[in-house]
Amino acid sequence: MEPGGTIATWQQAFEEYRIPATRAIEKQLRASVTRDKEKLRALVGGSYRELLATAEAIVALDAKTKAAEEHISTISHNCRPPPHDLSARPPSSNKAALAQLRLLQRCCTTSATALRAQNILQCAQLIVISRLLLKSLGDQQGLARSLEILTNKISLLRRRLLRQVDAKLLNPLSTRSDVLDSLCSYCLVTSVSSEDALAYFRQLRLDKIRRQLTKSGDRYTICDALRYQIESLQTFKSLTGRPIADAMNNLQRRPILADATIKELELLDLDTVWSLLPVEIHTFVPYFKRITLSPEEMRSRLEAWSVEASRVLSAALDSHLSNMTNVTDVLEFRKELYTILLPSYFSVPASADIAAQIRHCLNQRLTAICQTQGSRLNDITKLLLEGTNAEDSAKSLWDADLAQASLSNGGSRFIKQVKNRHAGLNRVLSKAARMLDAWILSVNATQNQIDELPKIRWRDIVEEPEEEQEDDASRLIRGLSETDREAYSRELQEALRVSLSEYEKSMVEAASLIADDASSVYRAVTLLRSIRTSLVALQRAFPDDTRFDDLDAIVPKLHEVVANEIARQLSQSTRQGRKSDKLIEAALPEKMPSPAAFSTLRRLCQIMLDIGGTDLWSPPAVHAMKKAIRHQVSDAGQKSNYARNEFDEAYLGAALGHVLPEHSSKDAGSDMTARAAAEYWKRTKSLFGVLG
Questions:
Q1: What is the value of pTM for the model shown?
Q2: Which are the contacts of 638, defined by CB distance < 8 A and separation ≥ 6?
Q3: Last residue of a domain, one of 504, 533, 558
Q4: Range of the domain at 445
Q5: Which has fewest Cβ within 10 Å: 95, 165, 617, 642?
């Protein structure tokens, strides 16, 4: 290998050199590695020898230092002065009382300073010392006035301290150390046990939730209350057990005046008055009643608190939901509530009970909304039936006011008027049709929103469960996505089924009354239009739920009422308009109807238009009308009013369907006449629009 050359990989060596050269390069590299190992071994060995020499020097120096220290200690011991009697004389009672009074005044001042600095535990400790000093000075008559003033100050400080303790305990942003200090302070100034302090803490939080929801029960307040309840349960859980016990033990580990935080207060000047204080104040250690609860009892108390808080929350939730009538708002509120609860679902005690309460309130309200939404069809049905009694009739499609109507805004209003007049709808029925369309849209929109529930990714929102909680998490997500959707959809479909059943029942009852009263033709026509308008819309929107067998059975009776009225008016108009016709039968054109037959059909069409317009004549209605007219035309006593000859009878039979003239002696001639009349009807039926 050339001097200064480098080889990065073994592939490079084989690519750039021949095999003999590559072997030579290998030998060079091995020799170089051996030389480097020898150099490194020599360097490390020399450094190790130097390190050993330094360590030996340090050990020797340490031995000399210890010997010098022992020598100096011996000299110092021999140079001590002779002992003296240092026994202290007991201080006088007045001097001790004044020292305690001075310390009491300083405790009041320092307590106020600590309270302003929000050092509530230090303030509570100083208040306890102040009470001990007041008790110690209670028999000093000369200090009664000063002691009364100081007693009032201490009482005021105590009340201010308790208010600040309440504020700390109520604040959801307080850290665990702040809460523990507040609980310890409460125990110090009220002399209660730690369990009583926790019970007081829980009651404070519950009262705040109750006040908050009583003051305002809107959506944001309910969400804040739920969030506060969850945070409170997490705080309660983190405090029970060792944390609160350790905090209490720290207070009882040493006397209050021996606490470093108290001794370091320069304003107290404890070094000056220490010897003048009674022993019971020197050594005072706070005592707290110990109540040890099992984990089951702790959990039971937390669950009881959660049940009470959930009851308050449920009452506010029910009150707020009662004002919500839109399914969209309720479902959005549902998502918001579960978004607050689920991120800490498995770490919060009694979270399943909270979720059950929320679900119960939401399901109850959604069920009521679905039922209300279904019952709106009853109001529309009443309006449809009111349209049958309305005095205003449908306006004609050919009125001049419609032709001169404004076409502004794209002519939407003009188009609606044309549709309503073509359908024969009066003002009430037009309003009912609009309401029905809006109701169908709202029902379909509700169903679509319910069907969208499984698309919410609850798995991304819920707290990550432990391995043993996976089944609970799966059940929870399945309930939110599938079970609730099926329940809501089932309630909506049930409400829809009931409302459609009530619709059919109301329509059938109204139709039965009209069918029994032959004089109410206008009501029958209007009811037929109501049924047609509503039935078409309902069957198009809900094809699986609209099998109205009873309604289908009663509609032909309404057709009969209308058909009988048409037959009556036709008979009346025929008698009134009949003129003496002296034209002999032989003079009539061959294979053409007489003017009497032709006029009969024209009058029939006019009566049909006058009674039912152009919209009423569906095939069943036309069939019922033709049946009634056939019966009248074929009557032997009235036949001459409508037909003059055999061809007229055949022609009317072709127009009215299935009625042939009576056969003469020559059957072949009658058949030819019937075929000729049928052929003539095919050519002329366009002249009779509603009849053809």
A1: 0.69
A2: 571, 632
A3: 504
A4: 334-390+426-504
A5: 95
